[in-house]
Amino acid sequence: MNSNVIIIGAGAAGLMCAINSGKRGRPVIILDHASKIGQKILVSGGGRCNFTNLNIQAENYLSANPHFCKSALARFTSQDFIAMVRKHLISYQEKENGCIFCNGSSRQIVDMLRDECNSVGVKMRLNCKIQEITKNRRFIVKTNSGVIESESLVVATGGLSYPNLGATDLGHRVAAQFGLRIIPPKPALVPFTFSRGDREKFGELSGISLEAVVNCRGHEFCGEVLFTHKGLSGPAILQASSYWEHGEEILVNLLPGVDAHSIFLSNRQSRIEMKNMLSRYLPRRFAHIWCEFYFPSRPLCQYNDKELIDASHFLQRWIIKPAGTEGYGTAEVTRGGVDTDELSSKTMEAKKVAGLYFIGEVIDVTGHLGGYNLHWAWASGWTAGQYV
Ligand SMILES: Cc1cc2nc3c(=O)[nH]c(=O)nc-3n(C[C@H](O)[C@H](O)[C@H](O)COP(=O)(O)OP(=O)(O)OC[C@H]3O[C@@H](n4cnc5c(N)ncnc54)[C@H](O)[C@@H]3O)c2cc1C
């Protein structure tokens, strides 16, 4: 069988690329080993798909080359995706920090993409196992359901996270096969696990959450921190995890927007115990355990000046050394991937292999939490769709 364009991966990026190359009249076939399209879109945003963000900027992405994503993000904006959503009469709302979610279900986004694909004649082959990819003049893709040839091959196989939703390393293997460098992949937007000692200390806090500012390598994220039975999660922790390297510490300001030392000084003469005083600002159970391990609780009037300075310092720079992360099983995305230096930022084509394109999460472009990752999939898919 022949097609002008083969796209491997019927996820966010692959579907967007198919729609846009189909609009240009190119015969397109999408291959996917899964039995359904857009599985990660379906689970995204807790089932309501945080499909873009109103504040998209290159600063919201991690990449060895922070400039690579700029061109695609400038050419396909959040307003462009919102226009498509409106055209399909899907209702949506803005939540905090510019995040845009469906009011209904993520399925509406998948249905929209499927309808758009159908309207431009995109063919889809699901349950399709890729066995071998070669190239002479054209790409030859051998599958369990026959051999397909094409001029252009688009790799849109996503990252390694959530293998139960169909994630594989095929994209990285194809890149390596054609001599493209890979930035070592790592789980990102992922909960941290505690060391054994910290698990014993904080295990009973499982389920408790607090507002904090988490700092990892100088990158600060403000938001909820959630204690789990394994470690720490919640938006601020997930964001910090994308910057974390094994063995490093993170700093947590447990009292953001509050000057702990001033509070201690203004209660200097009080007989209130430290743990009860902290319970006014922090979950009670956390305040008690924190005192138990770091600052044995006494009436405030019994601390000397240095102790109060140390206590406030500890509260505003609580140091945690995670043992690791929960890994790809629960990571929302994968950082690293195909080195952007190998690709044209204008077309997403490999510089040294004509006709070979990489789009979406398989590339070393990783977004913050908040609709940035799906937006990268749309923008890079749209971009490649103009050229394949
Ligand atoms: C639980 C969860 C919630 C998320 N929520 C959000 C959110 O609300 N907002 C946001 O912006 N981002 C969110 N993300 C991230 C976002 O879903 C991804 O970044 C995005 O889907 C990546 O798009 P992609 O097309 O590159 O890859 P994917 O959507 O992962 O698509 C890759 C496709 O390739 C196929 N494939 C893989 N290997 C093979 C193979 N060997 N052979 C054939 N086909 C293959 C897969 O079956 C899949 O269909 C979430 C992720 C998860 C896991």
Structure report:
With 388 residues, the protein is α+β, with helices and mostly antiparallel strands. The chain is 30% helix and 25% strand. It folds into two domains: 2-186 and 334-385, FAD/NAD(P)-binding domain (3-Layer(bba) Sandwich), CATH 3.50.50.60; 192-325, Beta Barrel (Elongation Factor Tu (Ef-tu), domain 3), CATH 2.40.30.10. The protein has helices at 12-23, 39-43, 70-75, 78-87, 107-119, 170-177, 196-202, 235-241, 260-266, 274-278, 284-294, 305-316, 372-385, and strands at 2-8, 28-31, 50-53, 61-62, 92-94, 99-102, 123-125, 130-135, 139-143, 146-155, 182-188, 192-193, 209-216, 219-227, 231-233, 250-253, 318-320, 324-325, 333-338, 356-358, 366-367. The longest helix is centred in the C-terminal third of the chain and has 14 residues, at 372-385. The mean pLDDT is 96.
What layout of secondary structure does this protein have?
Layout: E1 2-8, H1 12-23, E2 28-31, H2 39-43, E3 50-53, E4 61-62, H3 70-75, H4 78-87, E5 92-94, E6 99-102, H5 107-119, E7 123-125, E8 130-135, E9 139-143, E10 146-155, H6 170-177, E11 182-188, E12 192-193, H7 196-202, E13 209-216, E14 219-227, E15 231-233, H8 235-241, E16 250-253, H9 260-266, H10 274-278, H11 284-294, H12 305-316, E17 318-320, E18 324-325, E19 333-338, E20 356-358, E21 366-367, H13 372-385
Parallel strand pairs: 1-2, 1-10, 2-7, 10-20
Antiparallel strand pairs: 3-6, 4-21, 5-6, 8-9, 9-10, 11-19, 12-15, 12-18, 13-14, 13-16, 14-15, 16-17
Helix pairs in contact: 1-5, 1-13, 9-12
The protein binds flavin-adenine dinucleotide.
